[in-house]
Input
Amino acid sequence: MLFDLPDDDTLYAALVARDPSYDGRAFVCVRTTGIFCRLTCPARNPKRENCTFQETAGACIAAGYRACKRCHPLANAALAEPHVAALLKALEARPTYRWGEGDVQRMGFDPSTVRRAFKRHFGMTFLDMARQTRLRHGFTAMGEGARVIDAQMEAGFASPSAFRAAFGKLMGVAPGAFRDDGLLRASWIDTPLGPMLAISDACALHLLEFMDRKALPGELRKLTQAAKGAIGIGRFVPTDQIERELEAYFAGRDPRFTVPLAMAASPFTRQVWTALCDIPAGQTRSYGDLAREIGRPTATRAVARANGANQIAIVIPCHRVIGQDGTLTGYGGGLWRKQRLIEIEQDYRTGEYS
Output
Protein backbone atom coordinates (compact mmCIF):
# COMPACT_ATOMS: atom_id res chain seq x y z
CA MET A 1 0.00 0.00 0.00
CA LEU A 2 1.31 3.43 -0.90
CA PHE A 3 -0.87 5.28 1.65
CA ASP A 4 -3.15 4.38 4.56
CA LEU A 5 -6.42 5.58 3.04
CA PRO A 6 -9.40 6.48 5.18
CA ASP A 7 -12.79 4.78 4.86
CA ASP A 8 -14.97 5.24 1.78
CA ASP A 9 -17.30 7.74 3.50
CA THR A 10 -14.35 10.00 4.22
CA LEU A 11 -13.16 9.63 0.62
CA TYR A 12 -16.62 10.46 -0.68
CA ALA A 13 -16.62 13.62 1.43
CA ALA A 14 -13.22 14.49 -0.11
CA LEU A 15 -14.71 13.91 -3.57
CA VAL A 16 -17.64 16.25 -2.84
CA ALA A 17 -15.21 18.87 -1.50
CA ARG A 18 -12.76 18.25 -4.38
CA ASP A 19 -10.04 18.03 -1.74
CA PRO A 20 -6.66 18.47 -3.53
CA SER A 21 -4.80 16.66 -0.76
CA TYR A 22 -6.14 13.35 -2.15
CA ASP A 23 -5.24 14.06 -5.77
CA GLY A 24 -3.26 11.09 -7.06
CA ARG A 25 -3.64 9.24 -3.74
CA ALA A 26 -7.11 7.82 -4.39
CA PHE A 27 -9.47 7.45 -7.34
CA VAL A 28 -13.24 7.08 -7.52
CA CYS A 29 -14.88 4.43 -9.72
CA VAL A 30 -18.45 5.23 -10.76
CA ARG A 31 -20.57 2.14 -11.46
CA THR A 32 -23.22 3.90 -13.53
CA THR A 33 -20.78 5.38 -16.03
CA GLY A 34 -17.92 2.85 -15.96
CA ILE A 35 -15.49 5.76 -15.50
CA PHE A 36 -12.84 6.45 -12.86
CA CYS A 37 -11.78 9.95 -11.84
CA ARG A 38 -9.53 11.97 -9.62
CA LEU A 39 -11.21 13.18 -6.42
CA THR A 40 -10.78 16.71 -7.78
CA CYS A 41 -12.74 16.00 -10.99
CA PRO A 42 -14.90 19.03 -11.98
CA ALA A 43 -17.77 16.81 -13.18
CA ARG A 44 -21.03 16.61 -11.23
CA ASN A 45 -20.65 14.44 -8.14
CA PRO A 46 -22.02 10.90 -8.47
CA LYS A 47 -24.29 9.39 -5.82
CA ARG A 48 -22.55 7.75 -2.87
CA GLU A 49 -24.05 4.33 -3.59
CA ASN A 50 -22.53 4.33 -7.10
CA CYS A 51 -18.97 4.98 -5.89
CA THR A 52 -16.11 2.72 -4.95
CA PHE A 53 -12.59 3.89 -4.28
CA GLN A 54 -9.19 2.54 -5.34
CA GLU A 55 -5.68 3.51 -4.34
CA THR A 56 -4.17 3.36 -7.84
CA ALA A 57 -5.21 4.04 -11.41
CA GLY A 58 -4.04 0.55 -12.30
CA ALA A 59 -6.53 -0.98 -9.85
CA CYS A 60 -9.34 1.02 -11.48
CA ILE A 61 -8.34 -0.21 -14.92
CA ALA A 62 -8.07 -3.79 -13.70
CA ALA A 63 -11.61 -3.47 -12.32
CA GLY A 64 -12.88 -2.57 -15.80
CA TYR A 65 -13.20 1.21 -15.52
CA ARG A 66 -11.95 3.68 -18.14
CA ALA A 67 -10.25 7.02 -17.53
CA CYS A 68 -12.35 10.19 -17.31
CA LYS A 69 -11.80 12.59 -20.19
CA ARG A 70 -12.41 15.65 -18.00
CA CYS A 71 -9.94 15.15 -15.16
CA HIS A 72 -7.49 12.84 -17.02
CA PRO A 73 -6.52 10.62 -14.06
CA LEU A 74 -3.71 9.03 -16.09
CA ALA A 75 -2.25 12.30 -17.40
CA ASN A 76 1.43 12.97 -16.90
CA ALA A 77 1.77 14.28 -13.36
CA ALA A 78 5.04 15.98 -14.31
CA LEU A 79 3.27 18.79 -16.14
CA ALA A 80 1.39 19.68 -12.97
CA GLU A 81 4.66 20.95 -11.48
CA PRO A 82 5.18 24.52 -12.77
CA HIS A 83 8.99 24.37 -12.83
CA VAL A 84 8.93 21.15 -14.85
CA ALA A 85 6.42 22.50 -17.37
CA ALA A 86 8.35 25.77 -17.73
CA LEU A 87 11.68 24.06 -18.33
CA LEU A 88 10.22 21.63 -20.86
CA LYS A 89 8.76 24.58 -22.74
CA ALA A 90 12.10 26.41 -22.63
CA LEU A 91 13.93 23.34 -23.91
CA GLU A 92 11.48 23.00 -26.78
CA ALA A 93 12.12 26.63 -27.74
CA ARG A 94 15.94 26.29 -27.58
CA PRO A 95 16.81 22.65 -28.31
CA THR A 96 20.48 23.19 -29.26
CA TYR A 97 21.31 25.60 -26.43
CA ARG A 98 23.92 24.36 -23.92
CA TRP A 99 21.80 24.53 -20.76
CA GLY A 100 23.46 24.72 -17.36
CA GLU A 101 22.42 25.08 -13.73
CA GLY A 102 22.95 28.82 -14.01
CA ASP A 103 20.19 28.99 -16.61
CA VAL A 104 17.86 27.09 -14.29
CA GLN A 105 18.62 29.56 -11.48
CA ARG A 106 18.08 32.55 -13.75
CA MET A 107 14.59 31.21 -14.51
CA GLY A 108 13.90 31.39 -10.77
CA PHE A 109 14.13 27.67 -9.96
CA ASP A 110 16.22 25.81 -7.42
CA PRO A 111 18.54 23.38 -9.29
CA SER A 112 18.29 20.66 -6.63
CA THR A 113 14.49 20.78 -6.69
CA VAL A 114 14.51 20.62 -10.48
CA ARG A 115 16.99 17.76 -10.43
CA ARG A 116 14.83 15.68 -8.09
CA ALA A 117 11.64 16.41 -10.01
CA PHE A 118 13.07 15.42 -13.39
CA LYS A 119 14.65 12.27 -11.96
CA ARG A 120 11.34 11.33 -10.37
CA HIS A 121 9.27 11.84 -13.50
CA PHE A 122 11.70 11.08 -16.32
CA GLY A 123 14.52 9.05 -14.81
CA MET A 124 17.04 11.74 -15.83
CA THR A 125 17.92 15.30 -14.88
CA PHE A 126 16.88 18.32 -16.91
CA LEU A 127 20.48 18.82 -18.02
CA ASP A 128 20.66 15.19 -19.17
CA MET A 129 17.46 15.72 -21.14
CA ALA A 130 18.86 18.89 -22.70
CA ARG A 131 22.03 17.07 -23.76
CA GLN A 132 19.97 14.26 -25.25
CA THR A 133 17.96 16.80 -27.22
CA ARG A 134 21.15 18.28 -28.66
CA LEU A 135 22.36 14.81 -29.57
CA ARG A 136 19.18 14.34 -31.56
CA HIS A 137 20.27 17.13 -33.88
CA GLY A 138 23.71 15.58 -34.32
CA PHE A 139 22.20 12.17 -34.93
CA THR A 140 19.86 13.59 -37.56
CA ALA A 141 22.72 15.42 -39.28
CA MET A 142 24.75 12.20 -39.50
CA GLY A 143 21.73 10.43 -40.94
CA GLU A 144 21.64 13.05 -43.67
CA GLY A 145 25.27 12.34 -44.55
CA ALA A 146 27.07 14.94 -42.44
CA ARG A 147 30.60 14.28 -41.18
CA VAL A 148 31.01 13.67 -37.46
CA ILE A 149 32.63 17.09 -37.00
CA ASP A 150 29.70 18.79 -38.73
CA ALA A 151 27.21 16.79 -36.66
CA GLN A 152 29.06 17.90 -33.55
CA MET A 153 28.65 21.56 -34.54
CA GLU A 154 24.99 21.03 -35.44
CA ALA A 155 24.38 19.58 -31.97
CA GLY A 156 26.05 22.54 -30.26
CA PHE A 157 28.94 20.62 -28.65
CA ALA A 158 32.08 22.65 -28.04
CA SER A 159 34.53 19.84 -28.77
CA PRO A 160 34.67 16.57 -30.72
CA SER A 161 35.58 14.66 -27.55
CA ALA A 162 32.49 15.94 -25.69
CA PHE A 163 30.28 14.95 -28.62
CA ARG A 164 31.85 11.49 -28.88
CA ALA A 165 31.50 10.92 -25.13
CA ALA A 166 27.87 12.01 -25.03
CA PHE A 167 27.01 10.06 -28.17
CA GLY A 168 28.73 6.94 -26.84
CA LYS A 169 26.93 7.17 -23.50
CA LEU A 170 23.55 7.40 -25.22
CA MET A 171 24.10 4.95 -28.07
CA GLY A 172 26.59 2.54 -26.55
CA VAL A 173 29.00 3.07 -29.46
CA ALA A 174 31.04 6.03 -30.77
CA PRO A 175 29.64 8.04 -33.70
CA GLY A 176 32.49 6.88 -35.94
CA ALA A 177 31.41 3.24 -35.45
CA PHE A 178 28.40 3.71 -37.70
CA ARG A 179 28.90 2.59 -41.29
CA ASP A 180 27.33 3.84 -44.50
CA ASP A 181 26.70 0.28 -45.70
CA GLY A 182 25.21 -1.02 -42.44
CA LEU A 183 23.09 -4.15 -42.58
CA LEU A 184 21.17 -2.60 -39.69
CA ARG A 185 20.26 1.06 -39.74
CA ALA A 186 19.26 3.29 -36.83
CA SER A 187 16.84 6.18 -37.10
CA TRP A 188 15.33 8.67 -34.66
CA ILE A 189 11.51 8.82 -34.51
CA ASP A 190 9.73 11.63 -32.66
CA THR A 191 6.56 10.71 -30.76
CA PRO A 192 4.24 12.57 -28.37
CA LEU A 193 5.92 10.70 -25.49
CA GLY A 194 9.45 11.56 -26.50
CA PRO A 195 11.98 10.41 -29.11
CA MET A 196 12.42 6.74 -29.94
CA LEU A 197 15.24 4.90 -31.66
CA ALA A 198 14.23 2.45 -34.38
CA ILE A 199 16.67 -0.08 -35.84
CA SER A 200 15.78 -2.30 -38.74
CA ASP A 201 17.26 -4.28 -41.57
CA ALA A 202 15.74 -4.49 -45.05
CA CYS A 203 13.08 -6.94 -43.85
CA ALA A 204 12.18 -6.39 -40.19
CA LEU A 205 12.26 -4.12 -37.15
CA HIS A 206 14.89 -5.17 -34.58
CA LEU A 207 14.56 -2.47 -31.94
CA LEU A 208 12.19 0.32 -30.95
CA GLU A 209 13.04 2.02 -27.67
CA PHE A 210 12.61 5.39 -26.00
CA MET A 211 15.91 7.22 -26.18
CA ASP A 212 16.17 7.66 -22.41
CA ARG A 213 15.75 3.96 -21.58
CA LYS A 214 18.68 3.01 -19.37
CA ALA A 215 19.08 -0.36 -21.06
CA LEU A 216 19.38 1.15 -24.55
CA PRO A 217 23.21 1.41 -24.75
CA GLY A 218 23.58 -2.24 -23.77
CA GLU A 219 20.94 -3.30 -26.28
CA LEU A 220 22.74 -1.37 -29.00
CA ARG A 221 26.07 -2.96 -28.18
CA LYS A 222 24.50 -6.42 -28.48
CA LEU A 223 22.92 -5.54 -31.84
CA THR A 224 26.24 -4.14 -33.08
CA GLN A 225 28.02 -7.34 -32.08
CA ALA A 226 25.34 -9.52 -33.69
CA ALA A 227 25.65 -7.52 -36.91
CA LYS A 228 29.46 -7.78 -36.73
CA GLY A 229 29.68 -4.01 -36.57
CA ALA A 230 27.61 -3.52 -39.71
CA ILE A 231 25.26 -0.90 -38.29
CA GLY A 232 24.66 2.53 -39.74
CA ILE A 233 22.42 5.57 -39.47
CA GLY A 234 19.58 5.69 -41.91
CA ARG A 235 16.40 3.88 -42.84
CA PHE A 236 14.99 0.75 -44.38
CA VAL A 237 11.35 0.20 -45.28
CA PRO A 238 10.35 -1.25 -41.85
CA THR A 239 11.41 2.00 -40.15
CA ASP A 240 9.22 4.06 -42.47
CA GLN A 241 6.37 1.64 -41.79
CA ILE A 242 6.65 1.78 -38.00
CA GLU A 243 6.80 5.57 -38.10
CA ARG A 244 3.49 5.65 -39.99
CA GLU A 245 1.93 3.11 -37.66
CA LEU A 246 3.08 4.98 -34.55
CA GLU A 247 1.57 8.17 -35.92
CA ALA A 248 -1.78 6.41 -36.40
CA TYR A 249 -1.57 4.86 -32.94
CA PHE A 250 -0.92 8.14 -31.13
CA ALA A 251 -3.54 9.96 -33.23
CA GLY A 252 -6.18 7.50 -32.00
CA ARG A 253 -6.87 6.02 -35.43
CA ASP A 254 -5.51 2.48 -35.11
CA PRO A 255 -3.70 0.47 -32.39
CA ARG A 256 -2.66 -2.32 -34.75
CA PHE A 257 0.95 -2.83 -35.85
CA THR A 258 1.80 -4.93 -38.88
CA VAL A 259 5.50 -4.11 -39.27
CA PRO A 260 7.56 -7.35 -39.48
CA LEU A 261 9.46 -8.02 -36.26
CA ALA A 262 12.84 -9.67 -35.73
CA MET A 263 12.29 -11.43 -32.41
CA ALA A 264 15.86 -12.43 -31.56
CA ALA A 265 15.26 -14.43 -28.39
CA SER A 266 14.74 -17.91 -26.97
CA PRO A 267 11.58 -19.84 -27.89
CA PHE A 268 10.12 -19.20 -24.41
CA THR A 269 10.74 -15.45 -24.62
CA ARG A 270 9.21 -15.30 -28.10
CA GLN A 271 6.19 -17.17 -26.73
CA VAL A 272 5.77 -14.51 -24.03
CA TRP A 273 6.18 -11.69 -26.54
CA THR A 274 3.55 -13.28 -28.80
CA ALA A 275 1.18 -13.49 -25.83
CA LEU A 276 1.80 -9.79 -25.15
CA CYS A 277 0.87 -8.97 -28.74
CA ASP A 278 -2.39 -10.92 -28.27
CA ILE A 279 -3.56 -8.60 -25.45
CA PRO A 280 -6.16 -6.28 -27.06
CA ALA A 281 -5.51 -2.54 -26.81
CA GLY A 282 -7.41 -1.18 -23.83
CA GLN A 283 -6.95 -4.33 -21.74
CA THR A 284 -4.26 -5.35 -19.26
CA ARG A 285 -2.86 -8.57 -17.82
CA SER A 286 -0.74 -9.55 -14.83
CA TYR A 287 2.42 -11.64 -15.10
CA GLY A 288 0.43 -14.51 -13.60
CA ASP A 289 -2.25 -14.11 -16.27
CA LEU A 290 0.39 -14.32 -19.01
CA ALA A 291 1.98 -17.39 -17.44
CA ARG A 292 -1.38 -19.17 -17.42
CA GLU A 293 -2.20 -18.09 -20.97
CA ILE A 294 0.98 -19.69 -22.34
CA GLY A 295 0.37 -22.86 -20.33
CA ARG A 296 3.17 -22.22 -17.80
CA PRO A 297 1.27 -21.20 -14.63
CA THR A 298 4.32 -21.58 -12.37
CA ALA A 299 6.63 -19.52 -14.59
CA THR A 300 5.53 -16.06 -13.41
CA ARG A 301 9.09 -14.86 -12.71
CA ALA A 302 10.37 -16.15 -16.04
CA VAL A 303 7.49 -14.37 -17.76
CA ALA A 304 8.44 -11.15 -15.95
CA ARG A 305 12.07 -11.50 -17.12
CA ALA A 306 10.94 -12.09 -20.72
CA ASN A 307 8.70 -9.04 -20.46
CA GLY A 308 11.63 -6.93 -19.26
CA ALA A 309 13.83 -8.20 -22.11
CA ASN A 310 11.49 -6.77 -24.74
CA GLN A 311 13.29 -4.23 -26.92
CA ILE A 312 10.44 -3.41 -29.30
CA ALA A 313 8.38 -1.07 -27.16
CA ILE A 314 4.68 -0.35 -27.82
CA VAL A 315 4.55 -2.84 -30.73
CA ILE A 316 5.23 -5.70 -28.31
CA PRO A 317 3.03 -4.11 -25.63
CA CYS A 318 4.76 -4.90 -22.34
CA HIS A 319 3.11 -1.71 -21.01
CA ARG A 320 -0.16 -3.69 -20.82
CA VAL A 321 1.19 -5.77 -17.93
CA ILE A 322 0.25 -4.52 -14.45
CA GLY A 323 0.70 -5.92 -10.96
CA GLN A 324 -1.51 -8.68 -9.61
CA ASP A 325 -3.01 -6.11 -7.21
CA GLY A 326 -3.78 -3.67 -10.03
CA THR A 327 -0.84 -1.34 -9.46
CA LEU A 328 1.09 0.07 -12.41
CA THR A 329 4.36 -1.83 -12.12
CA GLY A 330 7.71 -0.58 -13.44
CA TYR A 331 8.33 0.14 -17.10
CA GLY A 332 11.66 0.60 -18.85
CA GLY A 333 10.42 3.69 -20.65
CA GLY A 334 9.27 5.30 -17.39
CA LEU A 335 6.11 4.80 -15.36
CA TRP A 336 4.65 8.08 -16.59
CA ARG A 337 4.83 6.77 -20.18
CA LYS A 338 3.17 3.52 -19.14
CA GLN A 339 0.32 5.51 -17.60
CA ARG A 340 -0.07 7.59 -20.76
CA LEU A 341 0.01 4.55 -23.06
CA ILE A 342 -2.73 2.88 -21.03
CA GLU A 343 -4.74 6.10 -21.14
CA ILE A 344 -4.38 6.34 -24.93
CA GLU A 345 -5.57 2.77 -25.31
CA GLN A 346 -8.73 3.29 -23.27
CA ASP A 347 -10.22 4.88 -26.39
CA TYR A 348 -9.50 1.65 -28.29
CA ARG A 349 -11.50 -0.56 -25.87
CA THR A 350 -14.57 -0.75 -28.13
CA GLY A 351 -12.54 -1.99 -31.11
CA GLU A 352 -14.19 0.65 -33.29
CA TYR A 353 -11.42 2.25 -35.32
CA SER A 354 -10.67 2.67 -38.98
